[in-house]
Design brief:
- The structure holds two protein chains of two kinds.
- Chain A is α/β, with parallel strands linked by helices.
- Chain A has five helices and five strands, in the order βαβαβαβαβα.
- In chain A, helix 4 links the parallel strand 4 and strand 5.
- The two termini of chain A are 22 Å apart.
- Chain B folds into two domains: 239 residues, P-loop containing nucleotide triphosphate hydrolases (Rossmann fold, 3-Layer(aba) Sandwich); 55 residues.
- Classes of the chains: A alpha/beta, B alpha/beta.
- Chains A and B meet through helix 1, strand 2 and helix 2 of A and helix 1, strand 3 and strand 4 of B.
Amino acid sequence: MVTTKPRRILIAKPGLDGHDRGAKVIVRALRDAGFEVIYTGIRQTPEMIAATALQEDVDAVGLSLLSGAHLTLFPRIVSLLRRGGMRGVLVFGGGIIPDEDVPALLKKGIDRVFGPGTPLQLIVDYLNEALGARVTGEK
Amino acid sequence: MLAGDTAAASRALSLVINEDVRSDAMIRAFFMKSGAAQKIGICGPPGAGKSTLAARLVSIYRKRGLKVGVLAVDPSSSISGGAFLGDRLRIQEHAMDSGVFIRSVATRGMVGGVSHTIFGAIHVLEAWGCDRIIVETVGTGQAEVIIARVADTVVYVTTPTMGDEIQAMKAGVMEIGDVFVVNKGDLAGKDKALSDIKAALGLGLSRDPPPWETPVLSTSALTGTGVEALSAALEAHAKYLRDSGEGRRRLKQQHREEVSLYVSRRVYQDALSQLDRYLDDLADHKTDPATVGARILKK
């Protein structure tokens, strides 16, 4: 059967941060763009997010964080994902993240950071392109 | 071969759910080990508290040391093909428990409350080692009854605002519950709902003694009230299935459904792949749907 299957994305809210409007906007945009989107809800530990990504076998994990703890939590999640065997999973982030922190995050394995005001279509296009290029079974 | 290996089970689930060419081999390997887990279907209208109730049941099973799988089904968009799989959020307290495997599943075009690939997903979770598998359907309307041909035991969850006994008398979902639950029992109207359901179940042809006295329970998934009684009712139903011939009858019904989905899915996809070339002729009235349909089936 040669039908294309929807890509699966986990949107997660790590740490002590209850501001989830941004995450919900992303969830909705990705749903409408044809992705299957799972949302963890707020106040998740990095361990919970990595375990969820593994059980849901997602193609990408989107992290939304507005608390300022991104430099600690994002790299920790990336390393837990890798340790759990999800080497090929795409990790992107967004929220209140100062421009000067972005290079450090990219260096730690975050594939892309989207700041406030990013057009939703840009995120959709990015995911379509990045995930389309990934070979299935690579994870 | 999958027992306890979460990463391998997760990949196997994806292959089965994506109808990958390797899924046949998976099902061949896993099926022979199937049948040990009790498959519990949870259905009911959107927002009745199915996922939260599932989370409570998982807690009870885990206290008893049982391994639990949850397949949480939510609808795919008929427009984009995407989906928001939002059940997991309510069960997320169990995310770190290595004895619990939760997988969110989109319907991907299947009507009736589950996905085409639900049986394959169940086989993978059985091979992983589940003692209980909870299949939570999409929020159902009046006629999404396929869960009765997937699960061993069907829990129908409703709320105190479900309507009156006339609603409870209708055919469809009200016929398939082995256990009825009025959730949100902390809200007003619980007693009326309980008595309306009991009254509706008491109508009709009686069999003496009744093979299974359908329990009608009240729970509050929010506070946990009544959930122990629900799990006791589920155990009692499992015993009833074992002791009567009903368990085997249902199992055969499940296999019938699984194979018929397998066949219809392949025939259907094959037919659809040929359909496009006839659309212009149909639009120009050069042919008709019956002729096109017959021609595709003959190939």
